[in-house]
Design goal:
This protein is mainly α. The chain has one domain (38-171). The chain contains 7 helices and no strands. Helix 2 (41-73) crosses helix 6 (119-137) and helix 3 (75-87) runs antiparallel to helix 5. The longest helix has 33 residues, at 41-73. 8% of the residues are buried. Keywords: Membrane, Transmembrane, Transmembrane helix. It is a multi-pass membrane protein. Belongs to the TMEM88 family.
Length: 179
């Protein structure tokens, strides 16, 4: 390149007054031939509330599934630690017959330690179960982008995938991941 071309190139590309993008680009440019039409101000507010509600509902669904899985998997730890604390003389010292006949302070301490030791692998197991279930049920596909509120014609995120649980299309067996 000659010196004149390099100077022209530098002047054209480096500018103090570069143009900024006036609005957000469309969400999915692959499916759109023309730029999508923006919504009116009130339409944008209404759709923002609707998308926020849908995302909050998706958050609640994920939270309920996560809570149920963790409660089921961590039940043995909860029971062992509960009985350890319940029967120890310096903590709750219950007058139940099994505390008097079966568990003394040493065995109660052993139950507490056993419960906390077995908690770590059970938390990993519960998280692996949740991730596998969330992937199989496509729970994270329930969350919607906020560009739906800005532009008309944005499809639901899970629409191209064959539904929320991919009931329409077959599950892709070629791609597998260990959790």
């Amino acid at each position: 390149m000659s010196d004149q071309e390099i100077e022209d190139f530098d002047v054209d590309n480096i500018s103090d007054t570069s143009r900024m993008i006036p609005s957000l680009p469309p969400y999915n440019m692959d499916d759109q031939l023309l730029p999508m039409e923006t919504r009116s101000r009130w339409g944008c507010w209404i759709w923002t509330v609707f998308v926020s509600g849908a995302n909050f509902l998706a958050f609640l669904v994920n939270s309920v599934v996560l809570g149920a899985i963790f409660t089921i998997v961590l039940t043995p730890t909860i029971v062992v630690v509960y009985f350890g604390f319940k029967c120890h003389s310096r903590v709750l010292h219950s007058d139940a017959s099994y505390c008097k006949t079966l568990l003394d302070d040493n065995s109660s301490s052993a139950l507490i330690i056993l419960g906390f030791v077995m908690m770590s692998p059970l938390i990993v197991l519960a998280m692996a179960l949740y991730c596998g279930l969330a992937r199989r049920l496509r729970l994270f596909m329930l969350f919607q982008p906020y560009t739906r509120a800005l532009y008309k014609g944005v499809r639901w995120r899970w629409y191209d995938e064959g539904g929320i649980c991919s009931c329409v299309k077959e599950w892709n067996n070629h791609v597998k991941a260990w959790v």
